[in-house]
Amino acid sequence: MHIGSISRPRRIVAAALGALALVTGSLFASTVGADSATAATNGPCDTYASAGTSCVAAYSSTRALYSSYNGPLYQVQRASDGATTNVGLLAAGGTANAATQDAFCSGTSCTILKIYDQSANHNDLTVAGAGDAGPANHAADAGALPVTVAGHKAYGVFMPQQVAYRISSTAAKGTARGASPESMYEVASGTNVNHGCCSDFGNVETQSKDTGKGHMDALNLSMLNGKGSAGRGPWVQADLENGVYEGKTAINTANTGNSSKFVTALLKNDGVANFALKGGNAQTGSLSKWYEGALPTDRDGDGQGYTPMKLEGSIVLGAGGDNSNRGTQSFFEGVMTSGYSTDAADNAVQANVVAQNYQGVSTGGGPGAAITGVGGKCVDVAGDDLGGNTAVVQLYDCKALAADQHWLGSVYGAHTLSTLGRCLDVNGNATANGTHVELYDCNGAGGQQWIVQPDGSIKNPQSGRCLDVPSGNTANGTALQIYDCNGNAAQRFVAAVPITTIGGKCVDVAGNDLQQNGQQVQVFDCQTLLTDEQTTDQQWAYNAGDGTIRTLGRCLDVDGNATANGSHLELYACNGVGGQQWTLQANGSVRNPQSGRCLDVPSGNTANGTALQLYDCNGQAPQAFSFN
Fold first, then answer.
1. Does residue 31 sit in helix, strand or coil?
2. DSSP-derived secondary structure letter, 361
3. Which whole-number Å values give the CA distances from 346 to 7, 39, 164, 254, in the listed order?
4. Rounded to whole angstroms, how far apart are CA atoms 407 and 416?
5. Which CATH number is 14-355 given?
6. What is the Cα–Cα distance from 453 to 450, expressed in whole angstroms?
7. CATH placement of domain 374-494
8. I want to staple 60 with a disulfide (CB 3.0 to 4.6 A). Which of 288, 333, 501, 581 is the partner?
């Protein structure tokens, strides 16, 4: 993702911005340039108001959304002493004063406690509490997502799983209720997405409960509904409660997705019969209309549908209406309006967004985990989270929020390693020593098959060779290759992949990606395709150096550090005890040296939820595990 000797340079969008300024004329003035701290002639909410669909809520951590707004954008809290301060603007109608945050948080860290509504309704968002479908949320790390907007430093809102905001249980002011029409847009990341439910923005239930179809009308930019969809995603979708829709149906092949670093996503709903979805690159170009037509109908025979809508009027950012909080996103700005906006207003707002010239080295990570190699460097894709076909795969300094340093194992097919919707691939499907590896569309070829070995090497079975750092060179930009497997440090990597066992089941953590000590480790159906559930707790990284097997930032652990037959396995904070040490055996067993016993599926029971245990090593199928 990084600019270096073999990375492609970042393209300048000034020409495109000039063309947009000519098209939109009086709608806005470009904010790029020496005077970019001052207001645009019209902000998005000014444009919507002029079109008769005024903003009822407007949020941004980066800029004013009205030309006259000069209040706070968000509130941060300092870790060192619990003090708080508001982050405002450089000028009325302008961009965030990031220096306020930088000075206040210097020498410590800060979180975002509140996101202010810029409209007169004061529908301010605070950290969301627990709901029917998820535990209480955490505040976002205020410094996690630096960007520039209109040439000035600002911070986005980085929202991994279990980070979300919501207005209190009392309904918000001015928002659509019942079958009233509304519209909304957001600028979010097209690379920091997953297929967990549901990192939404929009109109939700007054309480954090699922009260039925049509009680939500919210934007969702994610990999939900991925299987069978067109393109690689993510898709701009509508979460209408008890269903996330790309169009009238959950899958709409006309909706080909928006994967740019910054995405403008738009939803509008007349509340009675029709809705529309649009998406575009927030850095350049216009919006694509992915769908406009009838609302979904009853698809499961329960007698409930979406015509008319039954909106309750509260607002959420980062979770579903029932606090389903396993999704992830990066948020920069978004509004909700009264009424069904015109296409002309939507187009003008997109032009205004593009004119802000959003830029950022990364837009917030994404699903998966880093693959680390020699020198502690990470496996990375050349370029700035672009991930195009034939992009060079290389070593680079690890960056926590680099989307192209987050890899998933076996999601796009067994034995694959993928990032940004494409697979780690041997150039030309070749097998010779020294052949470079690249990123390419997942196609099931032999050059895209990779299996983690007991010594930490990653073997390509087609060639019989291993992923290799040439001469162990740790310089940033060193292109990776395949080479004869030799067990040297230059071929040892730590990669997160599924662990499969008897019956084709996967080693899994009970619950939905719960990062909690004591969670049971069990067998469960493998989640190898993009579905409506997250797969993070089926992605395990074996570290041959310290003998640990990790997921969700914790270690595979023997409950109570016990050694007896039948001792159960759990997830626990890594602490170096003997019950967290494992060695991979040639016969596929996973041995715990402290006890001398092996990881075991009791009686070979393949029922979902069967808890794993320790047992005398016997070489049988219930003790055979594959890191693939």
1. coil
2. S
3. 35, 20, 26, 20
4. 10
5. 2.60.120.200
6. 10
7. 2.80.10.50
8. 333
Domain 14-355 and domain 498-627 have a common topology: no
Report yes or no: 483 and 491 within 8 Å, Cβ to Cβ. yes
Residue among 124, 260, 139 at smallest CA distance from 188: 260
Residues paired with residue 407 on neighbouring β-strands, in sequence order: 369
Residue 529 pLDDT level (bands cut at 50, 70, 90) = low
Nearest to 421 by CA among 446, 454, 391: 391
Q: To which residue do tokens 């060639």 refer?
A: 463
Pairing of strands 200-204, 217-222: antiparallel
Q: Among all chains, which residue has been given the structure tokens 């029409």?
A: 181
- Residues noted as catalytic: 241, 322
Domain range annotation of the chain? 14-355, 374-494, 498-627
> Mean pLDDT of all residues in the chain?
91
β-pairing, 182-189 vs 244-245, is unpaired
* Count of other CB atoms within 10 angstroms of residue 228: 10
In residues, how long is the chain? 628
Beta partners for 599? 614
Q: For residue 178, give the DSSP letter.
A: B
Say which DSSP state 363 is in: S
Percent of the chain surpassing pLDDT 90: 83
Give the number of other Cβ atoms within 10 Å of residue 436's Cβ: 18
- Tell me the C-alpha distance between 593 and 595, whole Å: 6
Of 49, 82, 43, whose CA–CA distance to 64 is shortest? Answer: 43
Can you tell me the distance from the alpha carbon of 468 to that of 114, in angstroms, rounded to the nearest whole number? Answer: 47
Token pair, residue 565, equals: 């037959």
Q: Is-contact 213 225, C-beta < 8 A? A: no
Contact 239, 247 (CB under 8 A): no
CATH 1.10.150.130 assigned to domain 498-627? The reply is no
Average pLDDT for 488-505: 96
- Sign of the CA dihedral 256, 257, 260, 264? positive
Tens of pLDDT, residue by residue over 550-564, are 999 999 999 999 999
pLDDT for 1 equals 40
Q: Which helix (H) or strand (E) holds 482?
A: strand 481-484
Which residues, listed in sequence order, are joined to residue 366 by a DSSP beta bridge?
A: none
Backbone angles phi, psi at 566, to 5 degrees: 90, 0
Contact 550, 584 (CB under 8 A): no
The sign of the torsion formed by the CA atoms of 150, 152, 158, 164 equals negative
Long-range contacts of 602-606 (CB under 8 A, 24+ apart): 602/566, 604/502, 604/503, 606/502, 606/503, 606/505, 606/523
Residue type, 226: G
Burial 80-93 (b: 16+ CB within 10 A, else e): eeeeebbbbbbebb
- Per-residue confidence band for 38, with pLDDT thresholds at 50, 70 and 90: very low
Which residues have C-beta within 8 Å of that of residue 106, sequence separation ≥ 6?
none
Nearest to 540 by CA among 422, 400, 410: 410
- What are the structure tokens assigned to 344, written together? 């002309």
Q: What is the rounded distance in angstroms from the CA atom of residue 495 to the CA atom of residue 481?
A: 16
| Rounded mean pLDDT, 146-156 | 97
Helices and strands: H and E segment counts in the chain: 4, 43
